[in-house]
């Protein structure tokens, strides 16, 4: 029993989805890592600026104390210049609003101290107070830088943790996506492919019951479905060929048995029968030999045409004259049926291989005769349908179902028969008839009539001009459908 999978996802769609997910995850992880790198760089810059700010604040305090304690004017001048340079460098390193605000307060306090210290007649307590305010402001600047440095370190650690989490999570999702894709490929691609390969191998090896389970991805399910249909069709055609060959063997056995019985009457150890009886036996033997020759010829012709070696020698012909001239031949095909022919009173010109069309009509008649009881009437009609000539063979034989009519033209399809008595040869198979008609640019058909009779027939395209208006074609030429030589 074949189990159908519920999945309808194709390999192409699954590959697209997996690739899209992987690309999105990769882009997300890459973008997040770039952002985290930028944040880490910003925290590093703040940390470096904070450390530099602490160092510069310490250097500024040392310069102020050197200015305050040294009586040497040169030392005091250098200390004041060093202080201004340090504050200027600190401004270029300030990264945050807190650092810039603390720096502005410290700069103002230092400038106030130098202004007080350099002013003649400044009171000592005023100078001491301005010195303490400057040192306090510089100390506050250092504390601000230290706090900003600690904050930068904490942020950097936090971004580092986020980076680790993102890396592990993104990598895990990518691995999960790849693992899921691998599992899907194994379940819906690899295993169904192996099952399909095994089924094909068994079928080629002779196991005609081998079928592929219709599971897996959409492409494999469709391929398995087509293989199973092809396998069923091959088995059906094989059975039809065997049935057809069995029918051929049965048809050949009858005249051979009759010949054997006739020859038994003139055995070497027996006296010859009287001349009238002998002549009757010889005529009967000739008739069976002719019938056997017809059957073998039909069989060989069917095999040759079915193998693709159909050759047409087309000429411009009048189907009206062709069908009418075959009336005696039709009577010779079946001795125990009445054949009625109806043709129009005007020419119906077609381009055809006259021998092949005779074979087609004769085979349709033989098919109708096989399906009809002795004494039944077989009706052959030629008519016009728009731009086509239509040849039909109607009989009151065994009724065919719609399914039988649908496949009646298949390769080696056996036709239900009621009798084979009185037939000279069984004719070409209906599949061969279809091949010949199709090679002429026509089509075959079979239908059940309202009166329960069955009609087999074919259509051929008509030529618009009369036969005498066409040039004579060399034998074996390939004329175009409108009558012009190519």
Q: Would you kindly provide a written description of the structure presented here, covering whatever features stand out?
A:
Helix 1 (11-69) runs antiparallel to helix 4 and helix 5 runs antiparallel to helix 6 (275-306). The protein contains eleven helices and seven strands. The protein is α+β, with helices and mostly antiparallel strands. Mean pLDDT is 77; it is low at 1-7, 414-426 and 466-486. It has a five-stranded mixed β-sheet. It is rod-shaped. It is 63% helix and 9% strand.
Percent strand equals: 5-15%
- Find the structural class using helix and strand composition: alpha+beta
- The 3D shape can be described as rod-shaped
Spatial order of the strands in the main sheet? 2-4-5-7-6
Helix content: 55-70%
What is the number of helical segments per DSSP (H or I, 4+ residues)?
A: 11
Order of secondary-structure elements: HHHHHHEHHEEHEEHHEE
Report the biggest beta sheet as strand number plus sense, adding barrel if it closes.
5 strands, mixed
- Overall residue-averaged pLDDT value: 77
What does the radius of gyration come to?
Answer: 53 Å
- Tell me the span between the first and last alpha carbons: 56 Å
Strands, count: 7
Topology, please?
Elements lengths: L10 H59 L3 H21 L3 H22 L5 H81 L13 H47 L10 H32 L8 E4 H7 L1 H7 L4 E5 L6 E4 L1 H17 L6 E9 L2 E8 L6 H5 L23 H10 L3 E6 L5 E8 L25
Parallel strand pairs: 2-4
Antiparallel strand pairs: 1-3, 4-5, 5-7, 6-7
Helix pairs in contact: 1-2, 1-4, 2-3, 3-4, 4-5, 5-6, 9-11
Q: Summarize this, please?
A:
The chain has eleven helices and seven strands. The strands form two sheets. The protein has a five-stranded mixed beta sheet with strand order 2-4-5-7-6. Strands 1-3 form a two-stranded antiparallel ribbon.
């Amino acid at each position: 029993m074949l189990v159908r999978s519920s999945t309808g996802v194709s390999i192409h769609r699954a590959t697209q989805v997996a690739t899209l997910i992987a690309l999105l995850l990769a882009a997300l992880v890459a973008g997040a890592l770039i952002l985290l790198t930028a944040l880490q760089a910003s925290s590093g810059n703040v940390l470096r600026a904070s450390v530099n700010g602490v160092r510069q604040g310490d250097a500024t305090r040392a310069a102020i104390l050197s200015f305050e304690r040294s009586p040497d004017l040169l030392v005091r001048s250098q200390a004041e210049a060093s202080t201004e340079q340090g504050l200027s460098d600190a401004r270029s390193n300030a990264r945050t609003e807190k650092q810039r605000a603390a720096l502005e307060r410290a700069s103002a306090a230092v400038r106030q101290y130098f202004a007080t210290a350099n002013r003649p007649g400044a009171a000592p307590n005023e100078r001491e107070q301005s010195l303490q305010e400057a040192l306090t402001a510089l100390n506050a600047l250092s504390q601000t830088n230290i706090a900003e440095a600690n904050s930068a370190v904490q942020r950097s650690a936090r971004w580092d943790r986020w980076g680790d989490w993102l890396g592990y999570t993104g990598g895990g999702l990518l691995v999960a996506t790849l693992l899921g894709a691998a599992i899907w490929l194994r379940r819906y691609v690899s295993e169904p492919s192996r099952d399909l390969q095994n089924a094909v191998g068994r079928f080629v090896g002779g196991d005609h019951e081998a079928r592929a389970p219709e599971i897996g991805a959409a492409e494999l399910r469709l391929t398995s479905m087509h293989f199973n249909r092809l396998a069923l069709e091959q088995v059906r055609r094989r059975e039809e060929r065997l049935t057809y060959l069995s029918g051929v063997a049965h048809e050949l056995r009858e005249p051979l048995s009759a010949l054997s019985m006739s020859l038994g009457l003139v055995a070497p150890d027996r006296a010859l029968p009287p001349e009238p009886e002998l002549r009757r036996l010889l005529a009967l033997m000739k008739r069976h030999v002719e019938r056997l020759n017809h059957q073998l010829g039909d069989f060989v012709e069917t095999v040759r045409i079915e193998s693709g070696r159909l050759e047409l020698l087309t000429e411009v012909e009048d189907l009206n004259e062709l069908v009418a001239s075959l009336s005696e031949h039709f009577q010779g095909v079946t001795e125990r049926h009445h054949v009625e022919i109806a043709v129009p009173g005007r020419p119906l010109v077609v381009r055809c291989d006259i021998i092949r069309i005779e074979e087609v009509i004769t085979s349709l008649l033989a098919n109708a005769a096989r399906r009809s009881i002795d004494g039944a009437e077989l009706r052959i009609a030629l008519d016009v349908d728009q731009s086509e000539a239509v040849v039909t063979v109607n009989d009151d034989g065994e009724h065919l179902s719609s399914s039988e009519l649908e496949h009646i033209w298949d390769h080696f399809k056996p036709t239900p028969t009621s009798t084979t008595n009185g037939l000279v040869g069984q004719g070409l198979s209906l599949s061969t008839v279809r091949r010949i008609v199709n090679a002429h640019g026509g089509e075959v058909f079979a239908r059940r009539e309202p009166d329960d009779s069955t009609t087999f027939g074919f259509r051929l395209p008509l030529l618009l001009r009369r036969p005498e208006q066409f040039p004579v074609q060399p034998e074996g030429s390939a004329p175009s459908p409108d009558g012009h030589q190519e």
